[in-house]
Design a protein that fits this description.
Helices cover 42% and strands 13% of the residues. The chain is built from 8 helices and 7 strands, in the order βαβαβαβαβαβαααβ. The chain is globular and about 65 Å long. The structure holds NADP nicotinamide-adenine-dinucleotide phosphate (NAP).
Amino acid sequence: MSCQFDFKGKTVFVSGGTSGINLGIAEGFAAAGARVAVMSRNAERVAAAREHLARFGQPVIGEVGDVRDFEQVKRALKAAHDVFGDIDVLVSGAAGNFLQPALNLSPNGFKVVVDIDLIGTFHVLRAGFDFLRKPGASIINISAPQSFNPAPMQVHVCAAKAGLDQVMRVLALEWGEYGVRVNSISPGPIDKTGGLDKLISEADVKSMAERIPARRLGTRDDIAQMAMFLGSPQASYITGTLIPVDGGLALIGGRGHAPNPEPTPRN
Ligand code: NAP
């Protein structure tokens, strides 16, 4: 991982920061010198992430908690704040996903994803506000292309991520006066992550990569680099924005385009 950012003396909190893209973000900040706190539900995963992140040489906190429970979120943020002080970068990344056509999706299935992705994000941002460095903090939501591209079999995710991005925009308006910036990153398909491995077959992943304008899947480091940029002073005039980091997928409607035809020989 190459790193041009310096987060020495800064505190970063990542909800859902114990695997995949969010762990990659936590790694990026830890490698750049930040004190990092991660939170998720599974105690073993939290312990493993804490051990992994500690290898970067900075203090790390791992908290067990479910973003659906406001009190648990508050407790985790307070624990990080008690030890590390004001939070400079707050990342809301916890999410759930599964494929199901709307006609087979139970109301509870819809609600679970909205509870984690949308309401959980509100919990993290609202509870987090009280522990942020003001002025100066940066909030980053991890959104998805489903926020703006309707995707069959993902009505629950599309609704939740679209809502999450409106939360981001409203809070950017309301919290600008406190010197707090709020943005979202929309990752494209990211290699070696739960989101991709669980949902799409290997063959479909390969053909998807061929249809992306950049002709490859994203990496966890691609997203970490954008998160660090948004968390840095270089991004101090960026707020209220959804930034796709997706190799151009957003340009072509999320599902990719047909491979380029063979060039026609000229006479
Ligand atoms: P992942 O590896 O499945 O990680 C999800 C993380 O969220 C885990 O650490 C999980 O830990 C935690 N989590 C889930 N439910 C939670 C809850 N209720 N409370 C607290 N923590 C919870 O996911 P990923 O694929 O890397 O995706 C990460 C983010 O990127 C998500 O917001 C996803 O929507 C977005 N995204 C991913 C892709 C992709 O290609 N993977 C593309 C676009 C957007 P526990 O199980 O321990 O709780």
